[in-house]
Amino acid sequence: xxxxxxxxxxxxxxxxxxxxxxxxxxxxxxxxxxxxxxxxxxxxxxxxxxxxxxxxxxxxxxxxxxxxxxxxxxxxxxxxxxxxxxxxxxxxxxxxxxxxxxxxxxxxxxxxxxxxxxxxxxxxxxxxxxxxxxxxxxxxxxxxxxxxxxxxxxxxxxxxxxxxxxxxxxxxxxxxxxxxxxxxxxxxxxxxxxxxxxxxxxxxxxxxxxxxxxxxxxxxxxxxxxxxxxxxxxxxxxxxxxxxxxxxxxxxxxxxxxxxxxxxxxxxxxxxxxxxxxxxxxxxxxxxxxxxxxxxxxxxxxxxxxxxxxxxxxxxxxxxxxxxxxxxxxxxxxxxxxxxxxxxxxxxxxxxxxxxxxxxxxxxxxxxxxxxxxxxxxxxxxxxxxxxxxxxxxxxxxxxxxxx
Length: 404
Description:
This protein is of the alpha/beta class.
């Protein structure tokens, strides 16, 4: 059932054939973003399959730092709402900048200028991890990134040391993250993908396969920092095109491991079946490659275990979840029928506490829209797993949820 209690998002957000490919369609449904229908149809009395072995224990052996997750404010989630932020499908940059200032102030207890040194130094190289999927409908809003950039620059960070990044390069441009829009900033992706080759529209593989027989993006990933899982990738060209490697390794991007010193995570508020695709998934599936093989056996666990690696755990200082327009069904792919104005930004250093709040809000929304919701604990187990690993707070009674 569709929720018509709020103004509908524009139909321009609907997926065309090429866009569907980009979010996991013609080249193999769910390779890029997962297969939420698998999770939405799971029965609560099912017997969970045995979890494949991973190398998360190696990451956990690395000593923590003062900056390690859950960050300065464990379990604290600030929610700022302003109906003026989105009116008649127009986003107001000034209102959103004011919301950003209120959110940082409520999180830290001090103003923007005084908050800056709590997270950054002027020498930092800061990566702003956006979610460009569903451009114009449910992608990270440019106005939110504008506010973050203005704060970083005012704090003394050179524009050349600010990187707006995601995993796939074409998606960044489609969502408006271009050098023309952000002069002086670096706009970078971890990998390229040849959509025409993945869709079988051409036999020419030179757009993604190098003369040495390796993926052209292979050099962008760090062979020394790898999330390993005992799950083979399929020996299939379409998969290889999208995933860079096809063995049991999921290397992290060199941008994340070698260049960035701090990360600001800017996901959007949307579902993935009965779960969510928000802060932890934006990094869990966005910082590594060769993820398609992980969806069925380790879908949500990836969101915890990838964030346990020091290159994320010790660099992720802030999560700003963009809920100005949210989506309660059909995710993680964009679905205009289920997108709705929510006029909200969430602020947290703890991505797991933030995801718990967002999960509960989306469950409530899905119920109000008449959608049958499976509330089995498996959809939030990865958050409790993170709490056991000391990465965040997951139990609602331990979360400080501040609304403003």
